[in-house]
Prior knowledge:
The structure holds 2 protein chains of 2 kinds. By secondary structure, chain A is mainly α. Chain A contains 12 helices and 2 strands, in the order H-H-H-H-H-E-H-H-H-H-E-H-H-H. Helix content of chain A is 72%, strand content 2%. Chain A has a two-stranded antiparallel sheet with strand order 1-2. Chain B is built from 17 helices and 22 strands. Chain B has helices spanning 46-53, 76-81, 99-103, 117-130, 146-159, 176-192, 203-209, 232-240, 297-304, 327-332, 342-346, 353-365, 372-385, 402-414, 432-448, 459-465, 488-496; strands at residues 8-17, 20-30, 35-39, 61-66, 69-70, 84-87, 110-111, 114-115, 164-168, 195-199, 212-217, 220-226, 263-270, 274-281, 286-290, 312-317, 320-322, 335-338, 420-424, 451-456, 468-473, 476-482. In chain B, strands 6-9-10-3-11-12 form a 6-stranded mixed β-sheet, with helices on both faces. In chain B, strands 18-19-20-15-21-22 form a 6-stranded mixed β-sheet, sandwiched between helices. Chains A and B meet through helix 7 and helix 8 of A and helix 10, helix 11 and helix 12 of B.
Amino acid sequence: MRKLWAIRELSTVAILVFEVLFFAWYLWPDGNRSHPFLNAGNGLLILKYSAIYGIAAVGAAMVIISGGVDLSPGAVMALAGVIGAELFVVQGWALGPAMTLGALSGLVAGFVSAGLVVAVKLPPFIATLGVMGITRGLAFIITEGRYFDVSSQLPGGWRPLGLPADWVAPLIMIALALVFQGLMTTFQWGRSVFAVGGNETAALFSGIAVNRVKTSVYAVAGLLAGVSGVVLTLVQGQAKADLANGYELDIIASSVVGGASLAGGRGSVIGAVLGTLIFGVLRNALPQIPGATFYDRLIVGLVVIVIVVMDQLLLRKRA
Amino acid sequence: MSSSPQGLQFTDVRKSFGAVRALRGVTFGVTEGEAHGLMGENGAGKSTLLKILAGIVQPDAGEVHWRGERLHLGSPRDALERGIGMVYQEMLCFENLTVAGNIFAGREITRGGRLRHQEMRERTRALLAELHLPISPDAPAASLSAAYRQLLQVARALAFDCQILVLDEPTTSLTDAETDHLFAVLERLKARGSTLLYVSHRLPEVLRLCDRITVLRDGSYVNTFDRGAVSASDIVRAMVGRELPPRAAIAAREQTPGRPPALSVDGLGRRPCFNNVSLRVDAGEIVGLFGLVGSGRSELLETIFGLYRREAGTVRIDGQPIDPSSPAAAARAGIALVPEERQRQGLLFNLSVRHNLVLPDRTVKGDLLVRTASERRDAQALVDAWRIKAAGVEVPPDALSGGNQQKVVVAKWLATSPKVLLLDEPTKGVDVGAKFEIHEIIRREAGRGAACLVASSDLPEVLALADRIIVMREGNIQGQIAGADATEESVMHLATHEVSV
C-alpha cells in the first residue's frame, strides 16, 4: 500500500521535473544572457508563491481524502490576512500576536464548517460554500473596502527567526507537508481519515469516531488556510478583502493532480504540495513566453485534465 | 457433459485476474427450458462466469453459445439484447424512481423522444399481475421491502422478454415466506419455457427448483448432477472436495451462579423498531436471535453497539451499566458487532486486508502510531487462523471472494477479544464451506468465554449454533427456547404468531 503511494508521488515528481526541463529548454536565452527561468532567484520566487497555495493544499488534501471537499480556503485566507493586518496595522499590535490571531480565525472557520458537516449534516460542498461566503463577507466588513499596507510597517531587513524573509513561506510549507504526511501515513489518526473517506459506514462500524475524525480534518484545513492567508499577506505586503479570490479551486486542483480522489479514500499531502508546485511553475513560466499571456488559464485547465486522465490510466493498468 | 446445441453452452471458458485464475476452462451446457443450478464455494468461479454472461467481464478464452449461435457479450447492454436477464445478489434498485420507472430504467418506451408514462404503467401493471405481485406501478421503489425489490428485478428482466434468467443468490435477504413467493414466480416462468440459471449456496433451494445442478470448484468444472439422482451430501462433497465433519453436539453449559451475565439488556426500547426488550447472554453462551425481516433484530444489535441512541432501558456488561453512545465507546466497553452488509458496513475497499483486519483492534486500543510490522504479523496470524484465502495481507479486500471477505469482517473483531460478540447474519451469502468455518469461529469464541448473540433469519443456522434461541417479532421478544428443545416448527411458530399471554 505504502509502496503504491510512493509510486504515485514519484509520478507527480516526474511531471514536475519534466515541466521544469521543458521550460528550461523553451526559455533558453540567446548568447550569454542569464536564464530567465532557470536561476536560483526565480526558483525561490516560485517556491514562495506556491507556498501560499501549498500550505492550504495540505489541509485541502486531507479534507478530500476524508471524502469531503472544502470550498472555503480562498475566503478564509482573505479573512485571516485581513484580521492579522487590521490588528497589526490599525490596532498597532505586535506582528507575532496579530498574525497568530489572524491564522486562528481560520481555525474558527474550520470548526464552523465541521459543525455544519458533522452536526447539521449538510453536504460538505454546501457547508463550505456557505462558510466561504461568510468569511469573505466578514473580510469585507472589517476592511470596508480599504487595503492595509503591511509592508511599510515591517522593520527594515526583517529576518523572522533569523532567516531571510523570502525563505519563510517555503520552509513553513515544507515543514507542514512533512508533518502532515507523517500524521497521515504513520498515525492512527491518518489511517482513520483514509478509512472514513473510503467507506464512512464501515469506518463507523469498525469503532472509528467518525465525527471526531471529520471535525479534526476540517478544523486543521481551516487553520492551515488561515496560516496561508497570513503568509500571503506578508508576501504581498498588503491585505484586502478580495485577497486569494478563487484560490480554492486551484488548491483543490492541486490536490487532485497530486493523486487525491474526490470520491475520498485516496490521495496524499505531499502529492498535493507537489501539485501546487506544478501550477506554481506554470504560473511563473507561462508569462515569460511571448504571446502566451492569454493562454495561461487554458493551459492550466488542460494540465489538470491531462494529469488526472494519466493517473487513472496508470491506476487501471496497475489494478 | 451433455452438449445440447439448442441450449446455453459454455466451452472452455477461461479468465484470470492478475495471478488469480478465476476460471480454468469451464465447459458445460444448460438445456433450454430447464432450471439449472450452479453451485460452488466462494472463489469457485461462479460470480466470474455470471459476469461473463452478463457482459461485465470478457473471458480470456473460450466461447458461449446460445441456440447454437456464438454470443459476443461486450457489455451488459449486449447481454440484455440477447435475452439474458440478470437478478443480482446485491440488489440494484433505483430508490428514487417508481416501480414502473425501475422496470423501464434505461429502456423507456418513448414516442418522438417523449416518455410514454401511461403505456409503461400499463405494461408494468400487467407484468406485476402476471407475477402476482400486489404492488402499484406508481409506488416509490424506496418503499418496497427487500423481497419486493428482488422480485422487481425479476419483473425487469421479464419486461424485456428475456429467454435466460440468471439469478445470483436471490434469496439471501428474503424470509422463507418471501422465498416461497419468489419460487412460485420462478416455477411459473419455468412452465412458460424460460431457461433459468440459479446460483445459490442454499442447497435445499437448489434441489427444490433445479432440474440439474452443475458444481464448480477452484475455477474448474466438477460435475453436473440430475436432481433425481443426487443427494445433498454428494453435492457438498463435490463443492468442498472433502467430507465435512458432522456438527458438533451442543454441550449443555452450566451457568455459574452468582456471576452477572456478560451481557444483560433491560427494557431497551427505540421506537418504532423495538420495544421493552430484555435479554441476557452469559459468558461462553451462544444465543440465537431469530426473527423475520422487520422484526427489529438488526436494530436491536445496532443499538446495543451504540449506533443509535436508545430511548429507554439499560445495557450492562458484566453487571456494570454502560452507556454506548457510539460504536467507538461500545467497542471500548468490549462489545463487537459483525454487521449484516459486508460491502456497505464491513469493509474498507481503499485500504488493504491488513488495515481492515487490525483497524478495530488498534482503534479500541487507542494506539497513536501505525506499526506496520506488528500489524502485518497480526493480520497474517488472523489470515492463517481463519484460513482466509488471500494473496498476502496487502491486497485490497475486493481481491477476495465473498466468503473470504466475510471471514475478514468476522475476524477483524476477534482480534479485540470482545466480551460480547454480536453477529448480524454472519453467513449471509456465504457458501457451505465458509459457513461451516464461520460457525467454528463463533463456537471457538464462545469457548474462549465470549457471550455471543447471533441474529439470523436462517433457521437451520440458528438451530445448529445456538444454546438458546430468542425469538423476536415486530420489535418484541416473543419468547425463548432452549437450543436442545427447539425445532423449526416451534421457533417459526413463535416468530409468526401472536402469543396469547
